[in-house]
Amino acid sequence: MKNSELHLSHFQRHPLGWTTVLTFALTLLLSLLPLPSELRPFPTLVEAPWDTLTGVLLPGDGRVPAQPPPPDLGDPEGEGEMMFPELDLTTGGEARSRLSPADEKEGRRLEKLARQLGAAHVPIFQPCEQAGPGCERATLAPFFDALTAQREGATVRVVVLGTSLIASDYITDVLRKRLQSRHRSAGPGYLFVDRPTRGAGRTTRSGDATNGWGIWKVTDDPPAKGAGVAGVYFIAHGERPQATSYSPPKGTRLLELFLLTQPGGGEVLVLADDKQLADVNTHADEAGPAFAAVELPAPVKTVTLRTKGGPVRLDGVVLETGGPGVVLDSLGLPGASAVVLLRDDVPLFTVQMGRRDPRLVLLMMGGNDAFDISLDRYTPAQAQDSFRKLIRRVKAAAPRAACLLASPPDGGVWRMNKTISVRKQTKVMSGVLRTLAKEEGCAHYDMQAAMGGEGAVESWWKAGVMNQDLIHPLPLGGDLLGYLIDESIERTRLKYEASLSGPKPRRGPRPAGQRPARRQRPRPVVTSSVAPAAAASPALPPLVCLPDGGVGEPSPLPMPEPAGEIRHGTSLEGAAHLAPFFARLNLLETQAGGRVAIAQLGASHTAAQFFTDHLRALLTDRFGYAGRGFVAAGRPSERLESAGVWRETSDGWTVLDAMKAGQQPGLVWGLTGIRAVGEPGANLTVGFEDARATATDLSRLQVFWLQAPDAGTLEVSLDGALAARLESPPEGTPASLRVLELTAPGGGHRVQLANAGDSPLSVFGVSHELTRPGLIYDALGLPGSSVMTLDTYARGPLVAQLHARLPDLYIFFYGTNEAALKPEVVVEQMGDAYARVLATVREASPDASCIIMGPTDRMRRKRGGGWRPADAMDEVDLAQRVIAASHGCAWWGTREAMGGPGSIERWRHTKPPLSHRDHVHLSELGYQRLAETFAADLLGAYDAWRVAP
Amino acid sequence: MNFHSARFLLMLAVAFFLYWEVADRYGRPGEDEDLPDEATVKRMMNRRRWLRLWVLALTSFAFYAAWDFRPMLVLSAYALVNWVAGLLFGRVKSPGPRKAVMVVAVCLHLGGLLFYKYLNLFIRTAADVAQWAGSTAKPEPLALLVPLGLSFAAFQAISYVVDAYRGQVKARYSYLHHWIYLCFFPRVVAGPIVRSSDLLTQLDRPRRPARGAGLPALFRITQGLAKKLLLADILAATLVDPVYSNPAGYSSIECVLATVAYTFQIYFDFSGYSDIAIGVAALFGFRIPENFDKPYHAYNLFEFWNRWHLSLSTWLRDYLYRPLGGSRGGKLATLRNLFLVMALGGLWHGADWRFAVWGAVHGVLLVILRIKWWRFGKPTYDRWWKVAFGISVTFTAVVFTRVFFRAESMGRAAEVFEQMFTFTWGLQRVSTMAAASLAACVFFYWVPRRAYEFTGELFVRAPVPVRVVMLVALGLLVKSISNFETQPYIYRQF
Prior knowledge:
- The complex is a heterodimer of chains A (949) and B (494).
- Chain A is α+β, with helices and mostly antiparallel strands.
- Chain B is 70% helix and 0% strand.
- At the A-B interface, helix 1, helix 2 and strand 6 of A face helix 1, helix 8 and helix 18 of B.
């Protein structure tokens, strides 16, 4: 009793103290009892008492547990040559033997960590780009082919676009190091002027810059406008000179500035170890992207760029050896996402990316998108849409590059009870990127799976390799991710190499654009030049050498070839896609079997007939002639006469075309985009005077017309005799495109189409073939049109006409008109139009191959005289190239074949002129020269295909 | 260090023990000393007083340094200015020099505030203006470490200088007094703004809580933690933050609801903090004035400001509005003063023009209200419907102006308003948890004060074991629904 009173008295005397002490005691008791975790204030107290107590009491802010220490991986030295032999997939350890001993050792160390963490060697998902009996060509093949080719001298560039994950060059540093260890280093690549977020992160990918540079980023609020491939640019204002310095690694011989010229632009002095090498003037009448390259002396310790006068905008600096090896550009921007990077200036992005000309573009993004999705800022569908646009933009800008999407690492969120909750949207983004990889022809690397799957962030955190934010790995974690990515790429490459060396069905020839590159020597640059970026050819164009070694001024477009000369044999890419066509050609040539038809769809270059006539002649000389092909209904034309075709029309014909009709979608047009409408009683004659035909030939003629209840009656006469009378169908019958086939002995024939009815009659054209082995070449051109015009044709009638012609090869010769459109819209329009048009033509003849011809060089007059490239010249050229690659077509670089940018101007001044003074069209001779080049490339690829094993 | 961290609770327990037990023990005469005479008692009390002050100072330093000790140099400089000003006030009796001392000291305090808190804003604004004029210059922000609670410290420091100048507070205090006055840990981060006449005088004579008087303080702390962790944070995580990060993704009604939710969130967040500050101070024998008085019960905007963040609104009244002339200079001057005080008071909350806009909008509304009263007379609230109408209108005004306060930028605020006026009505994206937490906030706000007092009494009177079970149960409740990210105290950023 007394004790009890004593205790009560104690409670009463110190109620606050007792409350505190007993609360603590009960908390401790409940935590230690075997109760459900919901009833235990600190459930981990039993399992990890010290960690729990220190976690509760010692961490900063009481919010997040203290950063666990990094793991001690020990020294893998002496643990055997190959610590994990099952990882060695090579035959004879080829890949690993190429790593330096230090990298090999570091790899073993990281492999040990990977196993501690439950990380995985995740295979790279590759959709098949070209199916055959197996997969003939996987998505990463361009990159792997380039790695093979670099052994013979080429530089292979990898561009990584990413977020804060790589902004300090974590992850990518290990990836670069290992790639360069295996395949040689060709230098550091693209470097920033200063760190995009000044004062934060490592300076390994930036210069040591003065503080006065203005930094403009697409992640700013409001976002900076006019950013290029890196999403960030740097401006030094005139009032105070700014500088940035780099320490190039040994062997660096080339420096290239990515800059923007502008009226009143200042100069950039290039100094090597304080000795001035060049003075680059960024002044120009118009603002525009430019590049300036300078050869560096050897050895050089420090390269300094110092601005002088005027504002200077410098986007980045490239340092390379100019020799064989791998360069990896790490373009990480904190806060970047697909939505953010779409703010980049499209033309500038295209030009700069084209200048880098990578063989692999790695998009290492999605973490910020996952975060934004978690906050409902946008939906996964919107993220997918943004990524799709970004991928297409990248592909258009880097047509020779393979594309690899790396989904974000596993991420988490701290709960208030200091446990980790998984950020579920990471997996969502991974799924989004996997879907896009399938649809857009990219490979996919699942970084979350590589970490160990959803929830792996917790074990990474506990192992001390994850930042407290549960988003960014710490340096060691970044190293591990870089190692895992490299391992996966290397394993995929080895499988690819093995597939090439193993027995396989007959392969087509090596595409022209992918033949082994010649050894590159350091370019003979003796001083600087500022080359306007219009020259977006894939390889770095030759730089203009100034004789006096003085100040570089904006130079005219590079002219790698003498005026009027054509580069031969270099402009056909993706010839492997032509294998079915080559097989038919081969059959025709070797066994005189069958008919091979080519349909060239295009604009005025095609409608002019010069190119097609000459090409037809060139091809039929070798493969045999089988008729003139399709001729549109229309008025008399001298252009047709050289091919032995003439037309006559009576009064009463109106010739409509898709251009004059305003490109309204869904109208019915003939193969050339026209429709001849004849009044009652009107007649039209198409004559074929075929000198190459003999009396023993049998002609096959087709008449294309529109049959409708309210249309007139078509009377078809062959060589003056009525061959068919085709009445209009009964009321209620839907209008349909009809093809009448006639045969007649001999090669020369006259086909008359007459409207014998009471209503107008629409006819589209007549075709003529000889039923003998040979080649037919249809010229289907509509002046002024574009592929978007073709896309407006009513699909059903177009398929019916093409099915009647049954081409084995489609050649699309569009682009020159598109080049005059607005760059910011035309690329997307073309992409969509080509996708639909190719689906349509493949419906008509599923086995046909296709070639997309790039636009001829086009220029427009500058104010005040002179000529400059058409507005969308580069964009269209690049876009068609990537469209061809992504839709399984070959691509022929017309402009490249002409001699590159500015060639139309040079062609104009040849004697006789090869181009028209409008700087759009070619002369007859010019078209013939172009046809010869095209034929040479096509036949060269065919011959290569024939001799390939 | 956050109030809702175990680390703080541990530090509090240690400081409490040192403050009351150790200081007492070492403040007593030794066993070998004679019975205390008057001088000994004085010496003893003096020793005890200094020991306690040092305990408070060290605890305050530890509390602040857990974040970063460097900004304490700025607060220490503020204390130095006040100490020197106090010395000068003690020596100088002429009004002119005294005024000069006061002006210099106030300018130094304001200069520090402007430099650390607003300089980057001014630079950014100047750059924006220059950009509109065609400049491409883009100055980088200065890497200044803004001291936590600087706004509160500056206003508190100014209040001492002005009060000392006016003779309302004793001029001569030690530097340690001044330092503790500005850095006293229960209020250093987010107030309340305590007048020198309140705190400085208490530093020398802390009232030891009577037996059992610590329990109300414990209840106040518990109440504050519950407001913060169970109401404000969950409302933020489930409704306010998602909507304000992407207003375009929500309907009009959801945006309005989120703004209403934010109105309750900020109340429970800040009043919860104030409860903890008042409770913790009470444990050490200090009385800190109340900061809130059911602000959403206000039936006009003037009354709202007499109920919301009282320590700030009374400071603005005493040290800005009245010195500007208050309502003594004619109607136009009154309106000008009213507007100016509110706009500056708004900007005090943060280095962003949206806070100034928020304050200015309140200023305009107060001006309109004042003119209406002059024109039509002050309304009487003698009918329930008049009260209800007044409360509704006032609450609506407070809610809509909160948009400026909560949005991350003026652009985002415009987006929220734009979305509100699309008149879309769906509530699909308001989760059950969000709706429940909003309902809980509304309920606990409207619970009469008497109910809180009654609960407090129950807590105090309850047997120790029952009280212990209550506290542990509350902790488990917090743990069970704490699958949300913790939020910093909203007013901590000011």
